[in-house]
Each structure stands twice: as C-alpha cells, then as structure tokens.
Amino acid sequence: MFSYRNLAREAREIRLVRFCVSGNDAINLTLTRASLNDPPPYHALSYVWGDPTPTATVDLDGNPLPIGSNLNGALLRLRQNGVVAWLWVDAICIDQNNHEERSWQAAQMRDIFAQASLVYIWLGADYNNSELVLDTTQRIGPDALDAGILDLWDDWPFRLDTGSENMGDDKALSFLAELLTDEALRCPDLPKAIMDLLGRANWFRSWITQELALPRTGLVMCGSRHVSLDAFDAALSAVYFAKVGRFARQLPEWRDFGAGLGNNVFHIRGLVARRQHRRGRGADLVEFLLADLRIAPDRPFYAATDARDVIFGLLGIAADTAHLRLCPDYSKTVAQVYTTATKAMIERCAHYRLEYCTFPKDTPDLPSWVPDWRRTGLKGVEVYPISHRNCFRSSGDRLQPPVTDTDDPYGRILRRRGCLVDTVSAVLVIEPSSRGTVTLAAALASQDLISRTCMSILEFAEPSLRIGAPEAALWRTLAGGWMGDTRCGSEFDALAPKAFRQEPVPVSSLTGEQLAYIFRNTYPYPLDSKQVTGSELQALVDTFCDRIVGNAASRSGGRALFVTAGGKFGLGPENVMRDDAVTILFGTQVPIILRPSGECFTYLGDAYVDRIMDGEFMTGCPVESDFDIM
Known about the structure:
Elements: E1 13-19, E2 28-35, E3 42-46, E4 56-60, E5 63-67, H1 69-80, E6 86-88, H2 90-93, H3 99-107, H4 109-115, E7 118-122, H5 130-146, H6 152-159, H7 171-180, H8 190-198, H9 208-213, E8 218-222, E9 225-228, H10 229-244, H11 269-278, H12 285-289, H13 309-315, H14 321-324, H15 334-348, H16 373-379, E10 414-427, H17 440-445, H18 450-466, H19 471-478, E11 482-483, E12 486-487, H20 490-500, H21 512-520, H22 534-555, E13 559-564, E14 569-573, E15 581-585, E16 592-597, E17 600-606, E18 608-609, E19 625-629
Parallel strand pairs: 2-4, 3-6, 3-7, 7-8
Antiparallel strand pairs: 1-2, 4-5, 8-9, 10-13, 10-15, 10-19, 11-12, 13-14, 14-18, 15-16, 16-17
Helix pairs in contact: 5-10, 7-10, 19-20, 20-22
C-alpha cells in the first residue's frame, strides 16, 4: 500500500500526480511535491466522490492506492484524452487519514483551484440523454458567450422586460430571439435531459462552489464529450432567459419554450459565484449558506458527504472568512463546526439574523439557535423568515451591545440583550377533520375547510376582539403583515374581513383606492384597467379575495396563530406553547419566541406580532435584560 510522507505546511506544499506510460490498462501515476508559492503548471480535477468505498486501484509510484469508481472513470477519460500535465486530485494528493493535513490542505484549496491553469469538471458517464445537453451547449454556447448572455445576470429583470419590438440594438436579446426559433431546442427530450444533468451531485456539492468559481479556465466533461465551462454556463443561461423573458410570451408559438424546465433548476451557486468573482464581487458565508430563501429544487442547493464540509467547502470562496476567523478543523464534530460558524456570523456579520434558524433539524446536539446547515442545503429554507422582505424594525434603532462572556466554556450559550414583551396565553388548534389533524396552512388552503377554519379563528380571537382588538389586526397577522409585494394597509384591512368570512364583495361597494389596490396586486397586471368592467371586473375582485386567503395559507406554512396575555395576535413557530416568551432582541427586525428553561431559554423562532413590528414597543423605554439562549 502507498505510504504518504508529510508535507511542509510552512512552504504551502501540495502533491501533484501525472500519468506514466504503461504497457497495460492499469492507471499508473507518479507523484511529486510542489509549493503553491512557485508551482509548476498544473491542472486540477473537480468531481464527486460518490460512494466512499474504494472499488478500483491505481498504481502510485509502484504502490497500490484504492480509489472510488467515479474518480477511476475520470482518470481513465483524462488518460484517454491524452492529458500529460501535472494533476491535483484531492483523494490522491491529500492524505485522507491525516486529519491535521486534511484541515490545512482544505484551507488552501482556494489557491489550488485559482492557480491551476485548467480545471476539469467531471460529471461522470453519459446517461439520461446527457450527450444531448453537451451537444446543445457545444453548439450554442460559444455564440451565447460572444453575445454577452452572461452579462444579462447583472440586470436581467429590467432588460428581459423588453418587448421584441425594442430589442434590435441589444446583441444579447437578439440572440435570445433567434434562440426561440431554434427547432433543435424544441426537442421533447431536451428539458428532462437538462433537468437530469443539472440534478447531478456535481452542481450542489459544497466544495464545487469554489471549484467552479475560481478557475481561470474550466472544462466540463461528461462521458466522451466536453465543452468550456463558460460556454456551458452561457448556453444554459440563454435557455433560461429565453424562457422567462417577456418577449418570449408575445407570440403563441414562443410561449411553451422551455416547458417542463423549472426555473429553480438553473440556480447553481457555483456558477453564480463564478460570475460574481469575474466581476470582482464577493459574497459572505451567510450568502452562500442562504443563497436562496426558496424551497430547494429537485436537487439540494448544497450538500457534502462529510457534513462538516457544508461549512469548510465554502470558506475558500466566502469573502468574510478571515473576518469571521474560521478555518477547517476536522478534529471538531459537526455540531461544533456549525455552532462555531454560526456564532462567528452572529457576532461579526452585520446581515446575519438569528431568525435564519428554522426547524426541524436532523443534526444531533445542536444548540437551539444554531441552524442545521446540512438540512438547509438539502431542503432550502422550509419556513420563510417573517423578515424576509427586510421591512420590519421591531427593535427600532437598538443594536446588540458588545458581546459579553457567559459561563459556558463550549460556546453553546448565546447571550442576547433585549426586552420581554409579553407571554403566549393561547394557541389556536385546528379541530381534526375526516382527514385527521391538519395544520393552519393546510386548513386555509382547503376549499372544504376554509369556512369552518375561519369561524374557528374568529372564535379563538373573540376574547381579544371583545376588549377592543380590531378584526383587521387578526387577518393582518395571518398574512404576516404582507399581501403580495406590499405591506398590509388600509385597503387590505377593508377587504380582508369579507374575504376570510367568504362573504361577497360587490364591485359597487369598493372605493377607487381599493380597486387600484386590487389592480396593483393582480398578476398579470391589466394593461388598461379602465377597460376591465362588468362581470370581468367582478371576477377579478373575487379572484383577488381568494388570493387574500391563499396568501395567508402561504405565509402561515410551518406556523401557528397565538394570542398573548396582553391581547395581541401573533403568528409564530408551529410548536409555540402557552407561557412561551415573546421578546424583542436588539438588532433583530422581528419578535423572537423563547421558551424558559431554568435560568436560560431555548430558541423557537421568529414571529409576527401585531402592533409591535415597527418599533412601537421600544418607544416606551421598556425594561431591558439579558437572555441566555442554549
């Protein structure tokens, strides 16, 4: 078996290998050492480990070294393609049994990929029509790149809102218009082939982000085919933009372009990072971990065989790694890695929010305030933060004071300064139906249950309504304060009671402001609202009232309706219970629900609590205290 000699850390040494000429089919490699301070020209390999159980063996300087099947396939293809350059391959060039070496080699992988003259992105063997995708990207990718398609990502919502009559002078948009007439792109097998190829693990592996973002030149390889990384990106970006551009919907024959392709599948964080990197822009660690607040597409946003690599794999590309003082350390457990990274972001990253921590969690032994980053990568953000539109300011202008130490030597307790606002006095329980127990969101979304559910909500709220709480506040709370793209205002307050009670809303009963509000929040927006009259206008109003209830169903996903001892309505985490604390922690945009546990608290999640979302509570100089959250 091959035995590694230690590398010189102070010299930033790495190992490199290259193919040896042999008279048999076995892969023979020779190994050398080099310093990243002055390395020879070399290429690097980006691939998926897959099943860690070795199924093949290479000959390394005359000694056998077991490797995985996917790596074996990549090496066979590189050898067949006549590659003679020195290669950096992580499974071979890092002693995987030496945790200390793994840690410091991982810390310099940014430089390894940035300094490589070429990076091979090995997607694996041809299957599920992958050759169709590679052939397509080879054909249209270079022209898409030349047309400046990748530049559209900088201002695409604005430029793609252009009609076909106004795009003649725009090279990128003209290219997209030509693409819409490309009959080969209407091949019925192509959408699924693209979905399958972009669903491969290469695109969501945590390490792939920097492996795609940093190389000077990349080559995508799949089976016997290959295409430059930038041409591949440009080709798929062109398909996406042609699919979503407004001009693509102007002609009937264009409207089904890309049917069967979900928009989310095009969101590949490594390619996003590459475009940002090329333009001199960086992203902080939290931006990579929470790149998108949507539910994940049919593939994860990011994942790793070793759950610690969810964090470690991003440190080389995150712009604030040095500021956070984080580095790979494989001597730590998964829970320790996630806790250390989260605490660093809370203390040193101005735009990290405590409410990014959602439930459920799969990783054991995490403090309540630490997200399960592995699950977030696999599932996306499963419960939308109340603050996801950056519009609330419950704590006003108050910020967290400098961090003070707790008695916890392991860093598992988070101390936050803030105020106790109220306590939960009751939580709405939806009565079981013939389908069994249903959630609030499911009950609001069911035509069979909506009337009974709204009556249950009114009965639940009756004590607060009796002492003066406005009914509109109840419906605002169910909507999380938002309707469509706007805050709930007086127009919403006027329409919501009838919408939830399933009462008719005749057009004749509406003011001009209320009709304008309905038009503004209707998609697609009527091109000439003055021409919408009679039964068509009534149908539009009825549909909008249904949307009010549907909006509440969406906002209440993973949440429960509660009322506080002071009579306030709240929408909080679905596991909220009587006597839980409603708090405002300084620096947060929204209230936080904490559960008392001895002298400490456990974090449950964020909440919408009517009448305290815009700093109202803070104007009264409330009592402050420290909350130790474990």
